[in-house]
Amino acid sequence: MRAPIRRKRGGASELWQTAYIDLMTNIMIFFVIFWSLSQAQSKGISETVGDVSTRMVNLPGDVLFRPGQTQLSPEGQAVFARLFQEDADSTLNFKTNGLVKRVLFIHGHTDNQGQKDKNFVLGFERAMATYKQIAQYGKDVPDHVVVCSHADNLPAHDVPKIDGPVSSFQKAAMDQANAKNRRIQIEDRLINQFKEEP
Questions:
Q1: How sure is the predictor about 44, in pLDDT bands with cuts at 50, 70 and 90?
Q2: What's the pLDDT tens digit per position in 156-172?
Q3: Which domains, from first to last, does the chain contain?
């Protein structure tokens, strides 16, 4: 009699799951980039003189960072590589007409969970990690960046305030609002260099 054949654990089943996870990750990255670029205006610097935000891009924090972490995830690094790697010469070109200075404001936003002071630190460290990642693509970036933290003081979506027991639907709505608030916001602003004194 022959002994029964034992199948190795893993194999095709785990390969399929790994390929599926990789595919979903790439789809998510593509969606984030497409969504971000759809919010942005056309490339180039406006010749408008004054303090004007020419472009504002919101990137979901849950894609860029693991929960509670301040280092960019591999997916987050891939997002910035696709945004800046091939087109850094025009995207990170800070030359202007001399009357204005182009500045990137990197805003780190958190949700309202936990202590406010810790959220300020978390928001700042995430914005700082974003700055360091972008700085890899342009040597002039350090002279044209302001890093900010908001700790849910400027939420993208208000979280419903509910007294008493919370239903599963209400919890899902609260989780969705908090997820929207956890974000990195990159504001492209032109600042007037020669303001008239009052």
A1: very low
A2: 888 878 788 888 888 88
A3: 12-42+49-192 (3.30.1330.60)
